[in-house]
Amino acid sequence: MTSTLSAGTGNASAPAWRQFSFFDPETVKDIHGLNSSPEIFKATLEISTVASSSAGVLVADIHGSIHLLNKDFESISSWVAHSGGRVTHMVERKGILVTLGEENVIQSPLIKIWDLGKKDKRTTAPLLLRSAKVQPSNRPHPVSTVALSSNLSHLAIGLGDGTVLIYRHLDQSLASSGSLTALPKPRTIHESPTEPITGLGFREPIPQSFNHASDATPKHSREPTDHNNPNLYLFIVTTNRVLVYQASGRGTGSSAATAVDEIGAALGCAVMSEFNMIVARDEAIYMCAIEGRGNAFAYEGNKSAVHIHSSYLVIVSPPFVASASAASATIRNFVRTTGDDTSEISKVTVFDPANKFVAYSGTFTQGVREIISAPWGDLYILSNNGELVHLVEKPTSAKLDMLYKRSLYGLALNLAKTQNLDESHVADIHRQYGDHLYSAKNDYDGAMAQYMKTLGWVQPSYVIRKFLDAQRIHNLVTYLQELHTRGLANSDHTTLLLNTYTKLKDVSRLDSFIRTESKPSREESLAPDELPFDLDTAIRVCRQAGYFEHAGYLAKKYERHEDYLRIQIEDAGKYSEALLYLRKLGMDAAEGNLARYGRALLSNLPEETTELLIDLCTTTSITTLGVIDNMGEETPISAVSRSTAGGASYLSYLSLNRNTITGQTSETATIAAPSVKTARVETDGDTIKSSGNLNSDDVSGTPRNVSPPPTASSTIPIAPLSAPPKEAPLKRLSPRLYFAHFVDHMEQFVVFLETVALRRWGQSADEKSQKHSLNSDLLSSDSDNDEEDRRDQVAVWNTLLELYLTLPQISSSFMSSTPQDEIALREKALRVLRSQTIPYDTMHALILCSSRGYTQGLVLLWEKMGMYEDVLRFWMERDKEGATPEASMQVLKHLELYGPTHPHLYTLVLRFLTSSPELLSRHMADVKQVIQHIDQEGIMPPLGIIQVLSRNSVASVGLVKEWLIERIRRERAEIQADHEWVSSYRMETATKLKQVEELSDPEHPKVFHVTRCSTCGGQLDLPSIHFMCNHSYHQRCLPDNDTECPNCAREHGVIREIRRNNEQLADQHDLFVSEVQEGGFKALANAFSRGLFNQSRLETIAA
Quick check: keyword Metal-binding in the entry (predicted)? Predict the structure, then answer.
């Protein structure tokens, strides 16, 4: 209430307050009879007082009764409060009603306290808590006014003799059980016999939350600053003064009431607002705070009563005779409409002190009895004739429409704030105010000031369209800046603002805009630390307008790595700054960006870029790389996909063969020599020293023509095998990502590949490096089982091998600065092919050596791959070409090397040596040795040898005459031996068949002629046992009465085992087929001899 009631002016003149009809009077009818006022108000003259309570409207009469009315003004409860007397005053807080009245039997006023929430079981009236006399002295005086604090702690009573009584701790007294008369002893805090008390009011302690809110509210220069006082104060109004008494807190009771204003008020003309005592006098309305008089409102005229209703002040004038010449327009209208200028009327004015206008003004011919501010928020006026008028307040929208029609937009804004409208409605008022200034007043600056207050509620496009003209572009800039400051701009708004800056050439404002720091927003709709503009749009627009420095500043500041590099490389051409920035990135960010911009950097800064690529591919930790890794939260770059084909050559993708090397002149074949110091590596024991390192502090924004010499800070020590385990290193970048960038920089490509191979895996094709034989296992211990790292090694060496065999020469290498010709490069290639530790794709190397005509490499690879026949055929082809005279000798030489382990090569060489008369004439003895070796080792049958020699007319019979004679002799001897074996087998078979026949003939009994035991050799005696195999034994010599001859049992067991094995083999068809495929007819003969084809066996299987 303070903020609203204290917003007036202290001007002593009576201004013409704006007057509106924000209330519509409606007569209230009785709910049971619509032709009359409510029944309770028909006897208006008997009503002594009316008060509002939380339970309803309380009406007391002169008979001492109290009636509790509902919203329809029906009595819901009635009881006699003061028997035989009347109720003079009523006040209610928290359901506790305090009444003051008179009774005939008692001279002093009586105070009674009721609990409206509880009923007396006997009378059904509210429960009476206390009843006592108000008797400060022997001479009783009537009560003029009463006040009760909101928490029931203090009760103040003012008497007609100028005495003020206060009851302390009333709430505690009511909470304790006691007699009806047990009230705290009243204390007289003020006495003024000549000044009756006309008003009392408690100023409640201010809640702490309200203190903070009020601190932020700008105060009028004359407004008291007592809102932070946490004590309870009592305002005392007399006819001549306004006093304040401290009722609680430190110093309570130590001092009397102090005067704060030397003006008083008549009875009923003082009312307590939330924080101030309002005093109505004929000349003005004054507001008094505990520190003194506050604001005053000039409102002349007699006043009989003032009341508070919500934020309004209701002023009632005493009856007076209307006049057509009255200063009040309400009185003049009354006379004009009724023509009555002789009757007395009363005027009721509803004043809004916060907004300084009259919300309602009306006349009542019968006089005003009471002003009722109902607890449900409505305002009623009770006339002396019992008529009840309801002042219906119009909705806020209707009020605003009335103000809009009169173009009172400022007043509409004040009204919206006092009515606590939400921000959207307030913003709509600002919008309409802005439209009014724009269209009707052509006040574009003022209109923009109003539109600025609609941010967040009105679509920005609504405002922007109005200010697109060139004359209003400055207003548009102001609006767009505020839109970005509040974080409400989108990319289109950012584009428009930046385009406006660039068209105006306003570089200073552009600088100020893009250098705006992100700061926590006060708007709830914005996230903390959010930029006031769309970063992507700002960068894009600055680039399009040619403000590369501004775009680069934004990209660098907000860690848009990809955008920053694109600006520096594609737009500004500042390659050195881009390379310096890449050194500060983390590995992941540098990886993707170098994959994208590596070619452009190599074209402009080949040495520095190669150095950086080497460091990225060989560094295993952030500490070694020297990276300022503050980019971990955001990596906007898109990583380049890695190839998964291990061992493939990547040089084919570089279009190296776009021009034939053989057709190049020395000028076209020569490549610009890089400063190889940036990548040269010197090996000394177990230490690798590199002058190009990302830890280097000497990094400037200009290209470096001369690299700094190696320093101690750039030394990368290799830990010994016994070193303690370190923290797990990060994964190193794959060098394959950057192969394509070296398409026009072959020498840097060689430097890059050789240095990466040495630093990363300890592998080198250089002779000096191989002598020192760095421990590759130590360097690559973290990736021995890493398949990806293995593919990287293969790709690096495949490409290096191709470069060695492809380039005609290079100016320098990573191990020396002296130029290297084709011979030196091919020697390196040969060392790579011979190495047992360097991984490369053998098949790819074979194709390279073949396509480049590198004979040494071809032979070496064929030998490593076991392709010995290809080695022989290669020399055979060379002999046919005639370019290599010693080709045939190389064939024989390699046959001696490979023949013992690969016998089939002899057949190939035999065909070669007998392919031409010249070869045969030169190698006659060699041919005979080859034939002899083939025959001895059984590599080919004699018929096969004859067929080979007889395929052409080169070899004659005389060449193999001696060998044939010797071979025929050996064959005849073998045939004769075979005949003898056949005869012996036939005789043995005939003997066996005869024996079987004799044993199976039942007509001829077997006669045993054996006389000695086959076991012990002694003379046979009875009992003896004879077997059909002609073996006889003593019965005692046979173990366990065995029924089988012991001498024949072993032989028969072997035969049975053989037959059982043969039967099992008969079912293993896969084994039989494989034997036939290997042995042919010999396998069939063996199978037949083992009985695998026995018909009876087949029948058994079929059964």
Answer: yes
Is a pLDDT exceeding 70 seen at residue 443? yes
Query: Do residues 614 and 679 touch, judged by C-beta distance below 8 A?
Result: yes
pLDDT of residue 386: 87
- Predicted confidence at residue 234, as pLDDT, reads 93
Q: Is the pLDDT of residue 664 over 50?
A: no
Higher-pLDDT residue of 937 and 100 is 100
Task: Give 555's pLDDT tier (boundaries 50, 70, 90).
Answer: confident
| Dihedrals phi, psi of 408, to nearest 5 degrees | -95, 65
**Contact status, residue 494 vs residue 484, Cβ threshold 8 Å:** yes
Structure tokens at 901: 């382990």
Strand locations in 269-410, DSSP E? 270-272, 277-280, 284-289, 292-298, 305-309, 312-316, 320-321, 344-352, 357-364, 368-373, 379-383, 388-393
Contact assessment for residue 232 and residue 247, using Cβ atoms and an 8 Å cutoff: yes
| 790: Cα separation from own chain's centroid | 34
Sole residue written with tokens 């069939």:
1084
Percent of the chain with pLDDT over 90: 19
pLDDT tens digit string along 706-760?
333 333 333 333 333 344 444 445 567 888 888 888 888 888 888 888 888 888 8
Q: CB within 8 A of 629, min separation 6: which ones? A: 586, 622
Kindly give, in sequence order, each residue whose CB lies less than 8 Å from that of residue 453, ignoring residues fewer than 6 positions away: 426, 427, 430
* Burial (0-12, 13-18, 19+ Cβ within 10 Å), 427: buried
**Nearest Cα to Cα of residue 605 among 712, 496, 678:** 678
- Asked whether the beta carbons of 617 and 756 are under 8 A apart, the reply is yes
Pinpoint the alpha helices (H) of 838-956.
Answer: 842-852, 855-865, 868-881, 887-898, 904-913, 917-922, 924-937, 942-949
Rounded to whole angstroms, the Cα distance separating 669 from 537 reads 47
Give me the pLDDT at residue 379, please.
Answer: 93
Closest CA to 307 of 231, 368, 395: 368
Rounded CA-CA distance 282/303 in Å is 6
- In eight-state DSSP terms, residue 649 is -
Task: Please check whether residue 158 is in contact with residue 197, taking contact to mean a CB–CB distance below 8 angstroms.
Answer: yes
CB distance 93 to 148 below 8 Å: yes
- Of 151-160, 239-248, 603-612, 617-626, the one with minimum mean pLDDT is 617-626
Torsion angle of C-alpha atoms 105, 107, 113, 119, degrees rounded to 10? 10
543 closest CA partner among 584, 490, 502, 500: 502
CA distance 625 to 695: 6
Is residue 280 a contact partner of residue 268, using CB atoms and an 8 Å limit?
Answer: no
435/443 Cα distance (integer angstroms): 10
Q: From 243, 213, 246, 244, select the one nearest 228 (Cα to Cα).
A: 213
Of residues 561 and 767, which shows the higher confidence score? 561
Per-residue model confidence (pLDDT) at position 143: 92
* Under 8 Å between Cβ of 265 and 302: no
Q: Is the pLDDT of residue 1044 over 50?
A: yes
The single-letter DSSP state of residue 489 is -
Q: Which two tokens stand for residue 951?
A: 């395929």
Residues of 864-881 as b/e, b for ≥16 C-beta within 10 angstroms? eeebbeebbebbbebbee
CB-based burial of residue 193 (10 Å sphere; 0-12 exposed, 13-18 middle, 19+ buried)?
exposed
Percent of the chain at pLDDT above 70? 79
The whole-number pLDDT of residue 112 equals 92
Q: Which residue, 389, 390, 392, 415, is CA-closest to 402?
A: 415
Its pTM stands at 0.54
Lowest mean pLDDT among 51-60, 443-452, 803-812, 1024-1033: 803-812
